[in-house]
């Protein structure tokens, strides 16, 4: 891997991209941040605007506008470009258009001889992370999608509110598709050090409340998009957290979109699962001990992704879709 220490290239300076850029600068996560976008005038104004706050950042971050040649020595390329989700639209419905966009973006990064870590945020993030893996030809550990990290953050927030404990004392995770088929892993969750299952056994009435909390997390994007057009702050902070984990070699476990190679009984698909992250990307995919119901729901989530992913790649590559996969 060849890179300039802690240089990040951000492709796509819309609402999500700039929320990420602001979080990165505000937290002093990288040394150099280069913005790339088709709208150069707007992006150069973003650079000027964000640089005006450097005096108050914890560490100086050099922010500038650039082109794809900047990817040559970047430690990370973060992709937030693509068609945004519209009110009433599912993430999977964005796929055809964004596949074409990603083929161009990833191709141009690789033409610049990029050999760092790709971090993908554009929806449908699991499939576009897999597309980045296929289009780039890079090792799987260098390809990360934001996965269900944002969904998990939402879950931890709402559980913290419900149990009146700090979010940092909530250990619970959402895995699967970043979308309608995702699932909570209640079997391994704990609140302030105590098993969530034990709490529910003592108070069975909690079961219905927990399902409502999960559904609120799962459907949060629809609510936010209907109200203000896009989600941005939560996912921006999520991407910044993943970036910090990688650049600082933290070896922390986060639920990201990672390639399965037999874990959970599946392979050749990117989907939200816990993974240990470090300086070279994904160090290890962590296989949780799912209960029977959770495994069935995870299998269904994989099937949901494949039912869309396989025909989309076949169409993109001009191949016939194998019978029974559509």
| Helix fraction bin | 40-55%
**How does the helix and strand content classify structurally?**
alpha/beta
What are the segments in which pLDDT stays under 50 over at least 5 consecutive residues? 322-326
The H-and-E topology, N to C, reads as EHEHEEHEHEHEEEEEHHHHEEEH
Give a count of the beta strands, DSSP E runs of length 2 or more. 14
CATH class annotation of the domain at 7-145: Alpha Beta
Q: Give the strand order, joined by hyphens, for the main sheet.
A: 3-2-1-4-5-6
From the N-terminal CA to the C-terminal CA, the straight-line distance is: 38 Å
CATH superfamily heading of the domain at 7-145? NAD(P)-binding Rossmann-like Domain
The proportion of residues in beta strands is: 15-25%
Structure characterization notes:
The protein is an alpha/beta fold. It has a domain at 7-145: NAD(P)-binding Rossmann-like Domain (Rossmann fold). The protein is 42% helix and 19% strand. The chain is built from ten helices and 14 strands. The chain has a six-stranded parallel sheet, with helices on both faces. A three-stranded antiparallel sheet has the order 7-10-11. It is globular and about 60 Å long.
Summarize the structure.
This protein is of the alpha/beta class. It has helices at 15-27, 40-51, 95-111, 125-136, 149-163, 196-202, 206-218, 220-228, 233-247, 292-316, and strands at 7-11, 32-36, 62-65, 76-79, 117-120, 143-145, 170-171, 174-175, 183-184, 190-191, 194-195, 252-261, 267-278, 281-285. It has a domain at 7-145: NAD(P)-binding Rossmann-like Domain (Rossmann fold).
